[in-house]
Amino acid sequence: MKANEIRKGMVFQLDGKNILVKHVQVQSPSSRSGSTLYKVRGQDLVSRQKFERSFKGDEMVEPVDMTRSAVQMLYRDGDGCTFMDIKSYEQYTLSDEALEDELDFLSDGLEGITALVADGAVLAIELPATVALEITDCAPGMKAASSSARTKPATLATGLIVQVPEYLTPGEVIKVNSETREFISRA
């Protein structure tokens, strides 16, 4: 597979490592002789180390054969988070370390999650693009605040802190972009 075919969520093998692609940025050439670069950010699925590298469009990478399964988060305990395959009802547990980037968005019963499965083992999960979370703590809402006014920090049910408009109050449920970690709207 050529590097210009790499997309978010794919897994490819490079130097004996399986890399989960989390972000692809295309950099067009600034001169006629330059070639388009594909800046890939991701994570090694085994060591959990961050991966970042630029590829030329015609460089070859080896895709890894994976299946995707829709899963729902059941619960979190001392061992990590347990997910259930929506079709087969199989349960998988991933450690907190394996879910480091996703923990701020995971809550019991969360749906829309995709598990990446290879050889019967879940290697990683992908979150839905937006996640609804409840505000547990923030400064009191201001009745006169407009929607385009200043923001304030709010702590959500999972511990994630995001900037929200001043008019929001604790107890309200908001939508958060799971990639940029930014407030989108009320849920």
TrEMBL record:
Q: Where is the Translation elongation factor P/YeiP central domain?
A: 68-123
One of the GO biological process terms:
peptide biosynthetic process
Transmembrane region(s): none
List GO molecular-function terms, semicolon-separated.
translation elongation factor activity
A GO CC term attached to the entry: cytosol
Keyword Nucleotidyltransferase in record: no
Instruction: Show where the Elongation factor P C-terminal domain sits.
Output: 131-186
* Protein name per its UniProtKB record: Elongation factor P-like protein
Q: Which organism is this protein's natural source?
A: Thiogranum longum
What taxonomic ancestry is recorded?
A: Bacteria, Pseudomonadati, Pseudomonadota, Gammaproteobacteria, Chromatiales
